[in-house]
Hints:
The chain is of the alpha+beta class. The chain is built from three helices and eight strands. It has helices at 6-17, 60-70, 165-168, and strands spanning 49-54, 81-83, 115-117, 123-126, 148-150, 176-181, 194-196, 201-207.
Amino acid sequence: MTKTKPWILFSLALILGCPSANDDDSSATDDDDAVADDDDSTALGSLRTFTVESDGNMGGPSGADALCAASADNPDTSATWKAMLGGLSRVPCADADCDSGTAGQVDWVLQPSTTYTRPQGGAFFTTDANGVITTYPLDGAMLDNATNFWTGLDSDWTVYTDFHCNDWTTNGVQVRGRVGWSVGTDAAWIQGGDLACDSVLPVLCVEQ
């Protein structure tokens, strides 16, 4: 019987013991690699929100923007923030749910096709191509605690006629402003009645 030479056995051991070049974890299709693939649970980019409190006299929507920027609750003073209010000088939709598109929008603050997070963190909503929300329920309620907040809006994202504290320039007790409901998740979350403009309520500030 022919004997196998020792150097042949040694060579076979080296070959069998070496892993394939594709057996490591550096493949681009692995879930734990640094390159995102279909199985990776990477978070999409989103914009933030927080609230500031005011009565109906904010110096107009632009004054409300300044309140957002100067608030001690502002999570990022290097970012630009605007108040989600409807009025004479800030209009999200000229007709119900922006059926005619963005024509007639004035200084609107929500970006199209964008995801926003709640003030406490977590998913809030994603806007449609017109920068409003028409699909409900929301991903989460605006606040954990139930309260009214200033909107000046109807549930279809049109400005509620004469219920915006004179375009957010008065805190007169005889003047009214439209309010939303902070724990609502249906279309009525931005339209929960109206209150006198001397009421001190949250305003939703949104990142730009």
